[in-house]
Amino acid sequence: MVQKLVAVALAGLCLAVAACNTVRGVGADVGSAANCTENAMHGGRC
């Protein structure tokens, strides 16, 4: 019983960490695209 509870808790923790990294990566990608667009509008390069 305890072993199953620990396994479920560990799986939940792994999913939470993976989701956090995914959201952080999406935020970085959106920020990068915004910077590239702004630079292009002002005659610069990406």
Description of the structure:
- The protein is mainly alpha-helical and 46 residues long.
- 87% of the residues lie in helices and 0% in strands.
- It has one helix at 2-41.
List keywords for this structure.
0% strand, single chain, 1 helix, rod-shaped, 46 residues, mainly alpha
Alpha-beta content class? mainly alpha
Over all CA atoms, what is the radius of gyration? 19 Å
The DSSP helix count reads 1
Question: How many runs of DSSP E, i.e. beta strands?
Answer: 0
Strand content: under 5%
> What is the share of helical residues?
over 70%
Q: Identify low-pLDDT runs.
A: none
- Mean residue pLDDT: 83
Major sheet description: none
Distance between the termini: 55 Å
Order of helices and strands: H
Shape verdict: rod-shaped
Short précis:
The protein has 46 residues and is mainly α. It has one helix at 2-41.
Which helices and strands appear, and what pairs or packs with what?
Blueprint: H1 2-41
